Amino acid sequence: MDLSRFPRRRYTAFATPIEPMPRFSAAVAASCPGGVGPEVWIKRDDMLGLFPGGNKTRKLEFLVADALEQGADTLVTCGAPQSNHCRITLAAAVKEGLKCRFVIEERVPGSFHEDATGNHFMFRLMGVEAMTVVPGGSNMVAAMNQVADDVAALGRKAYIIPGGGSNALGGLGYVACAQELQQQMLELGLPMDRVVLGSGSSGTHGGMLAGFLGNHIQIPIVGIGVSRDPQDQEPLVLREAQAVLDLLGVPMTVPPESVLSVGGYWQPKYSISNPAMVEAIQMLARTEGIPLDPVYTGKVMAGLIGLARKGFFKPNERILFLHTGGLPAIHAYEREILGGAEALT
Ligand SMILES: *Cc1c(COP(=O)(O)O)cnc(C)c1O
After folding, report:
1. Which percentage of the chain shows pLDDT scores above 70?
2. Catalytic: which of 4, 31, 83, 201?
3. Which residue, 12, 4, 38, 13, is CA-closest to 24?
4. How distant, in Å, are the alpha carbons of 87, 212, 275 from that of 223?
5. Which CATH entry fits the domain spanning 56-165: 3.40.718.10, 3.40.50.620, 3.30.465.60, 3.40.50.1100?
6. Is it true that domain 18-54+167-344 has CATH number 3.40.50.1100?
7. Which of 64, 128, 145, 199 could form a disulfide with 223 if both were Cys (CB 3.0 to 4.6 A apart)?
8. Is any atom of ligand 1 closer than 6 Å to the C-beta of 201?
9. To 5 degrees, how large is the angle CA 74–CA 77–CA 83?
10. Where do the structural domains in the chain lie, given as residue ranges?
11. Res 344: pLDDT
12. Has 258 been annotated as catalytic?
């Protein structure tokens, strides 16, 4: 599919690497019935550009280009107190000479702290212009419109980026990723049997699915929910994938059966730890030396491990795990990840 007619800024100078994970795959297999498990590979979208990158970098290449084309001088977006999306949006704003304001949704009551570490520290380090904190469940669109009005009252022009950067334009970032992956599989002679990724605001899952469908890539995608079970998540992903195909002018209806998400690994709540997440983070760190984050990729990898143990994958199936980033948040969860863990030395 031709993305060249959409304005795009480039924040990463290379295709993110695809790496084998033999020690991790062996550790997963050892915990599976019969000692046989999938062959797990990783695509390092945690190495994307901006401060430090993650999946939002790809979406922002198209969103920020649009903001610049519209003559905006201020980016306005929203997220949780440890939002990776807010941090990467701010990094893009700084790089482009724009100002940036956030609406922070306190999804867990009392979780916003002025002196917090992790992403919050980076908000302050990179000089966010203003943060408006609202209670969980607030109307984020209305709150961002209010901030945009405040910016306009100063004689400036705001550009609103939705939560997670997940609209049709942002989803193009993962169409580009699908095409990058297709090229890499060709060059490496390494076809994948399945892709496992995180499914939240759904730009990643929906964008990748649109990219696969539009490019006739027949690899099933499993989205592990980070905040919703399938009955709530799959309609979001379907809508996102369709919006992306429509924006691209591809005359295709997203087949509902192509949308697969898995629940049960994000509980008790978005951004709150669980033991399977802690196990997954420790396991990958100690077999491959690759850190995961506690809010997204730790739970997504817990899902991959859990599905392997349930026999969901075929023996020796080649799986690509998409590492979507999020690493600064790990420092806000150090106690959960190492405290009380067994075999800690
Ligand atoms: C935002 C985010 C996700 C989820 O991606 P969506 O496009 O919102 O579904 C996954 N991993 C990390 C690290 C994120 O920051």
Report:
1. 98
2. 83
3. 38
4. 23, 14, 20
5. 3.40.50.1100
6. yes
7. 199
8. yes
9. 130
10. 18-54+167-344, 56-165
11. 38
12. no
